[in-house]
Amino acid sequence: MMLQDRIALVTGAGSGIGQAIAHRFAAAGATVVAADLDRPAAEATASFAPERIVPYPVDVRDEASVRALLEHTVARFGRLDILVNNAGIGTTRDLHETELDEWENVFAVNVRGVFLCCKYALPSMLARRSGVIINIGSVAGLIGIPKRAAYCASKGAVVTLTKQLAIAYVKDGIRCNCICPGTVDSPWVERLVALEADPVAARRALEARQPMGRLVRPEEVAAAALYLASDEAAAVTGSILVVDGGWLAQ
């Protein structure tokens, strides 16, 4: 029970990595606010452990929505110990193919969403001089990947913001780290693969670019998040933890 009695908030908790993190944190003893744009998906995540997981709808692009989420969390539980900024979207276009509204929407979710959640989570953490922020980045924020212009740029911003937050708040007892997964076996990847002319071949190509020859499982990212959220990682801040099946080692 590494997170016994901790209060955690996970965005994008309705599926994939976010759902796996919410479940892992709850199993480790935390009370988890599972926030997602898709309310029924958040409720499905909460059904795993209704005594420990509370669903809440949020649009991380919208300041009022994020403020309401954080105010609700602190009012109900008295504090926030752990924030996991997981909500994110991607596109499959190179820069010359990317429309302005598509670019801005990716940044609204992936970057503005992280900014807003941190902005409204930090006052509670600062008041208690304690807290953990975990941002979910991507290997796409560390290297260039074809057909991922907006996604690479947005996740690069998340990586750098993580480092700034770590330095800015280290003396306040707040740690901030970033997990950069490789290609994760998630509903988003399933949708991308389904759009290809040969979905089976497309999936095999995604698996092949990771030396382990398979996609990363959401539960493996959740295990990394559990470590960073726990006291076992008390000396870890400003770090980028890559979970990619060896992709970046090539």
Write the layout of secondary structure elements.
Elements: E1 7-11, H1 16-27, E2 31-36, H2 39-46, E3 53-57, H3 63-77, E4 82-85, H4 100-128, E5 131-136, H5 149-169, E6 174-181, H6 187-194, H7 199-208, H8 218-229, E7 240-243
Parallel strand pairs: 1-2, 1-4, 2-3, 4-5, 5-6, 6-7
Helix pairs in contact: 1-8, 3-4, 4-5
Protein architecture, described:
This protein has 2 domains: 194 residues, Rossmann fold; 32 residues, no CATH class. The N and C termini lie far apart (36 Å). The chain is α/β, with parallel strands linked by helices and 250 residues long. A 7-stranded parallel sheet has the order 3-2-1-4-5-6-7, sandwiched between helices.
What is the element string, with H for helices and E for strands?
A: EHEHEHEHEHEHHHE
Largest sheet: 7 strands, parallel
The level 1 CATH classification of the largest domain is Alpha Beta
- Please give the order of strands in the largest beta sheet: 3-2-1-4-5-6-7
The first-to-last residue Cα distance is 36 Å
Per CATH, what is the topology of the largest domain? Rossmann fold
The CATH homologous superfamily of the largest domain corresponds to NAD(P)-binding Rossmann-like Domain
Question: Helix count, per DSSP?
Answer: 8
Rg, rounded, reads 17 Å
Oligomer: single chain
**Average residue-wise pLDDT:** 97
What's the β-strand tally? 7
Total number of domains: 2
**Structure class:** alpha/beta
The geometry reads as globular
- What is the helical fraction, as a range of percent? 40-55%
CATH architecture of the largest domain: 3-Layer(aba) Sandwich
Strand content: 15-25%
* Unreliable stretches covering 5 or more consecutive residues: none
